[in-house]
Hints:
alpha+beta; BirA Bifunctional Protein, domain 2; Rossmann fold; Translation Initiation Factor IF3; eleven-stranded mixed β-sheet
Amino acid sequence: xxKQEKQFVQDITPMEVDFPQWYTDVILKTELVDYxxxxxxxxxxxxxxxxxxxxxxxxxxxxxxxxxxxMYFPLLIPExxxxxxxxxxxxxxxEVAWVTHGGKEELAERLCIRPTSETIICAMYAKWLKSYRExxxxxxxxCSVVRWEKSTRPFLRTSEFLWQEGHTLHETYDxxxxxxxxxxxxxxxxxxxxxxxxxxxxxxxxxxxxxxxxATYTMEALMHDGKALxxxxxxxxxxxxxxxxxxxxxxRTGEVENPYHTxxxxxxxxxxxxxxxxxxxxxxxxxxxxAPIQVIIIPIAQHKEGVLDKAHELKKCLGDDIRVExxxxxxxxxxxxxxxxxxxGVPIRIEIGPKDIEKNQVMIFRRDTLEKQAVPMEGLKExxxxxxxxxxxxxxxxxxxxxxxxxxxxxxxEEFKIKMEQSPGFAKGMWCGKRECEDNVRAETGASIRCxxxxxEDLGDKCHFCQSxxxxxxxxAKAY
Length: 480
């Protein structure tokens, strides 16, 4: 290996030594992102963006399958619109970026760069909606938002990020509630069936809910370091915004009514979740259904007659349904290529050389288990398709096992504090529902109530944190 190659293929900091540095090493060395000249704003490079495109493609289809249509709303929101809903503006005020000038002229009214779009969308819905016959409004937009974060980390928390935000209106509360839970279920499906990430779903506490929401529902995933990641949220906003923005319609009885409102969203932080759930000390381990490249073909001794031709023949054999590339770059050694594509997390590597051609076989390496085996060329497409599904299921099960290993029951607050400090994870315990108790948990441990899960367990009649009467079983964890 040349000196240049040795410098390029560098070791990644072991996650057991320094997990944040491991994460930074992985995203930079695999060229998912780069830092831009503006602090907190990242450049998503083509390999990282391709992961987002695969997430977007899957979810966009699911949204449309359930009757939703895409729109696009403006980036800039007048301050007067933001001020219409006091709780909402208070929740986002510290993170809002403001535009004060247009060219050399100072604007008569400040414009905020959207931190979320409830206000501008509600202003337009108030203009459009007239009758119950037009409901439900089932609309979504794919866009970026800006929240001026003090501390940033690519994908997990950046000042600008990509996301989708659905905003729907309904005639009744029950219809809005059904929509809220339906979209959360689609998010859960996306996490588990596309990204092989197991999640816990439930309702947020009143403290943790979205500003202005009647109720916020969440899916929470556990990362390799035992911290939780809020991976997606769905909000039943009730009539909170529709009354503030005077969104009305003529109801079935002839009376003027306010519709019921939902919003829901996931963002590019899902990519951070994929990295931290599945990655290892070699780099990325990408779930097949979201991987930009599912199969990389490496020709061995490609200068020899017939090797490159056979590699291209194999690519054609695998067809358009599988994302396949050939690495026939002459400037790097075979060993360097192996290391590079393992680091980039490609699920399957196919090696083909003169000896393999003689035996009418290929060597297949799977990234999730690091196993290699000889496979006949005949029936290769079917074998690879089955293997991709097997890799997904194996990764999902491995992630579930890790989550279960890092999930424990609370016996008392003092033991919980020690456990959370020494071995972070999901703690399951009973909670009284009081805000002061919740605040005390965060103050003393840095952990927060991640959700009140739909699947409740009876773990006692006393709150594990303050010993008053318990109301809910909750998941508690430190979080990103």
